[in-house]
Design goal:
Keywords: Coiled coil. The chain is 65% helix and 0% strand. By secondary structure, the chain is mainly alpha-helical. The N and C termini lie far apart (148 Å).
């Protein structure tokens, strides 16, 4: 009888434990279901963030492309106003833009040579026989034209104002045309 009571009590405890295990399994199933929902929500958020990031990058790229297009259009507008220049004239214009009022050095690029071994005494110049004279004081100074100190762009405007066709011409050619016009 005591044995039967003990078995009944243990059977009762076992059935209570089984019921608790079943309740825990059901809660675990609910928790797993919630976890799956949270994972799906997290994936949706990650996808939305990726789409927003891509849209933002595309918007920035479009904005940058628009800025680049605007800058290119502005540059093209400036160059379309300039006369069509040859490559030489464009290079000269760039140089003038960098150094607009730099005086020209006539000795630039001149290479000094030494007398050759075959030179005779007659070919040699007697430096002591040359008298030193100040030619600047005795020669009249020639007045420079009013366009002499202008940079390339200002020079082109000046020449156009004098009705000189500057298209495809170098500065030297335009200067000759201006001098001819002034001498007429």
């Amino acid at each position: 009888m005591l044995f039967n009571q003990a078995v009944a009590r243990y059977d009762s405890q076992i059935s209570d434990i089984k019921a608790q295990i079943e309740a825990l399994r059901e809660k675990l199933s609910q928790v797993e279901h919630e976890r799956q929902n949270l994972l799906a929500t997290e994936q949706m958020w990650e996808s939305a963030i990726a789409q927003i990031t891509a849209a933002k990058a595309a918007t920035e790229a479009i904005g940058q492309n628009e800025l680049i297009k605007d800058a290119k259009a502005a540059i093209d507008a400036v160059f379309s106003e300039l006369p069509q220049l040859s490559a030489w004239d464009k290079a000269e214009a760039e140089i003038n833009a960098m150094e607009p009022n730099k005086p020209i050095d006539p000795t630039e690029g001149v290479i000094e040579t030494e007398p050759t071994a075959n030179a005779t005494e007659a070919d040699a110049i007697d430096v002591t026989a040359v008298e030193s004279t100040d030619t600047k004081a005795t020669e009249p100074t020639e007045a420079k034209p009013e366009w002499h100190a202008l940079n390339w762009r200002e020079f082109l405007k000046y020449a156009k104002g004098k009705n000189i066709n500057t298209k495809g011409k170098t500065r030297a050619e335009i200067e000759l045309l201006l001098l001819n016009q002034a001498n007429q």
